[in-house]
Amino acid sequence: MTADFTLSPLHDVHVEANATFTDFAGWQMPVRYSSDLTEHAAVRTAAGIFDLSHMAELSIRGPQAAAFLDYALAGKLSSIALGQAKYSLLLTEHGTIVDDVVVYRTGDSAFLVVANAGNHLAALEALRERSTGFDVEVTDQSDNTALIAVQGPRARHIVLATAGISFAEAAEQAPDAHPLAALKYYWSLQASYAGEPLLVARTGYTGEDGFELYVDAALAPALWRELMAAGEPLGLTQAGLASRDTLRLEAGMPLYGHELGLDTTPAQAGLGRVPNFSKGDFVGRAALEAAATSDPSTSSDMHEPPEPAPPPRVLVGLVGNGKRAARAGYPLFATDDSADAIGEITSGVLSPTLGVPIALAYLDPAFAETDTELSVDVRGKRLTFRVTPVPFYRRKRD
Amino acid sequence: MTEYSALKFTSEHEWIRLEPVSDDGPATATIGITSYAAGQLGDVVYVDLPEVGAEIADGTVVGEIESTKSVGELFAPLNGIVVEKNSAVEDSPELVNSDPFGEGWLIRVEFAELPELLTFSEYQALLGDDALTDAETDRAGA
């Protein structure tokens, strides 16, 4: 059977491991190897290894790379040091979200922008369009790049125990970075594997400590097997996208297509800190500033009524009782008797770690105060959920 | 122990085991979901079953089986009255994964007439490439 799927460079490894696959943004990716709950628990207590090769790696190089990213993205990327990473947003002219990305500074005038698989082309096109007038080159390296994440309290131990990974050159190549043992959260360093470059980043999407390893696609299967050989005695477990989703949700991290989208502004998504207004112009800036000043409560201009704005909404965390999850798309009400929806669930699951239902939802700000009780329609039954701060789960730090 | 080949199946991936009938007693059947269905759902974390005494109608949704990832509906495979529900599976939903044909049974139903159901070989044919393996049939007591 032929299918219109892209296969990961690690596909054979997953087939060998008897993975169950799912279609994710046009890719055939492992949804689980054994059990979602086992894989989830392994990441919380030991470590899990994920194939994220579907993510898009876009290289930005040139004398004006930093200035270009300051214009193209919402954050101030020129301010990050060599080796440092930063979470940022790619906005439309209207200030809504094209994608959320992680940016690594890999050189004085070189950055790596990692975009979601589902937004690969949208992000690439937006960056290319915005590069006009900048002395910069935007290159799509996704086809040649594999991404392996090792996440969990034992992740560092496992990466260090993987003999094929060499950190010998890290110090000379990136003086601002650190050897792995001292690598800080949201920093990266240049290591090597089988003589080829390996970007080791202390980043992730699970709420645990961990690393993301960017490597030449051809070397990925050997690296995966070597990590597993070193890690299995320490509890390293192959983990699929199902557990990745429950892990990120417990950590309160947004997922594009659920919490983020072309109809969402950073402020609505609780990401108001991401756009940096202390830098120069950037795509979306004017719209965000206009939105900030057209707040009806502060506006006194009666002559020019603002354009009809969509109903205000804000992203909140919810926690329920019992075992029944409120899932994406379920409507929210002020009370069990109310028929007027005041919001909608964007992601929800019975939290494997906490044992109670957790959810993220967009909600009328009037009901968004912590501890407000709300009614969720769970397939015809009304269940009570309570507004709660995110993250739902926070790891113990040593 | 039940003969696996004595089980009946539905295209909704339920299994039905006809219980021995005592003198003049009503016909009863035990109902669960197959290992294939459990595997597709992933880890089952919540099971919602009809109450004892509930009348169920063939083809209607009478319960829910939720995994971390999704919600599966339990369809009544026949007309009948629920005479027992598996409270063990309500307390430990993971039984649906660990022993779908045994400890993970869902409800027992009293019925008057049996609709047309799939035989084991028909169900295996329906599953095609995903047909139940020997390990799974072993678990079912074949």
Q: What is the CATH T-level topology of chain B? A: OB fold (Dihydrolipoamide Acetyltransferase, E2P)
**Mean pLDDT across all amino acids of chain B:** 90
Order of strands in the sheet with the most strands of chain A?
11-12-13-14-10-4-15
Strand order of the largest sheet of chain B: 1-2-3-9-8-5
**What would you report as the Rg of chain A, rounded to the nearest angstrom?**
22 Å
Number of strands of chain A: 21
**CATH class category name of chain B:** Mainly Beta
- Helix amount of chain B: 10-25%
- Global structural class of chain A: alpha+beta
Break the fold down into its secondary structure elements and pairings:
The complex is a heterodimer of chains A (398) and B (142).
Chain A: E1 6-7, H1 11-16, E2 20-24, E3 27-32, H2 36-45, E4 47-51, E5 56-61, H3 65-72, E6 85-91, E7 97-107, E8 110-115, H4 120-130, E9 137-140, E10 145-151, H5 155-161, E11 165-166, H6 170-173, E12 188-193, E13 196-201, E14 210-216, H7 220-231, E15 236-238, H8 241-250, H9 285-293, E16 314-320, E17 331-333, E18 341-350, E19 357-363, E20 373-378, E21 381-388
Parallel strand pairs in A: 1-3, 4-15
Antiparallel strand pairs in A: 2-3, 4-10, 5-8, 5-9, 6-7, 7-8, 10-14, 11-12, 12-13, 13-14, 16-19, 16-21, 17-18, 17-20, 18-19, 20-21
Helix pairs in contact in A: 2-8
Chain B: E1 8-9, E2 14-18, E3 27-33, H1 35-41, E4 44-48, E5 55-56, E6 61-67, E7 71-75, E8 80-85, H2 87-91, H3 95-98, E9 107-111, H4 120-127, H5 134-139
Antiparallel strand pairs in B: 1-2, 2-3, 3-9, 4-6, 5-8, 6-7, 8-9
Can you describe this structure?
The complex is a heterodimer of chains A (398) and B (142). With 398 residues, chain A is of the alpha+beta class. Chain A has helices at residues 11-16, 36-45, 65-72, 120-130, 155-161, 170-173, 220-231, 241-250, 285-293; strands at residues 6-7, 20-24, 27-32, 47-51, 56-61, 85-91, 97-107, 110-115, 137-140, 145-151, 165-166, 188-193, 196-201, 210-216, 236-238, 314-320, 331-333, 341-350, 357-363, 373-378, 381-388. Chain A has a seven-stranded mixed sheet with strand order 11-12-13-14-10-4-15, with helices on both faces. In chain A, helix 2 (36-45) packs across helix 8. The termini of chain A are far apart. In chain B, the strands form two sheets. Chain B has a six-stranded antiparallel sheet. Chain B has helices spanning 35-41, 87-91, 95-98, 120-127, 134-139, and strands at 8-9, 14-18, 27-33, 44-48, 55-56, 61-67, 71-75, 80-85, 107-111. Chain B is an alpha+beta fold. Chain B has a single domain (8-128), classed as RNA polymerase II/Efflux pump adaptor protein, barrel-sandwich hybrid domain (OB fold (Dihydrolipoamide Acetyltransferase, E2P)). The mean pLDDT of chain B is 90. Chain B is globular and about 40 Å long. Chain B contains five helices and nine strands. Classes of the chains: A alpha+beta (398), B alpha+beta (142). Chains A and B meet through helix 2 and helix 8 of A and strand 4 and strand 6 of B.
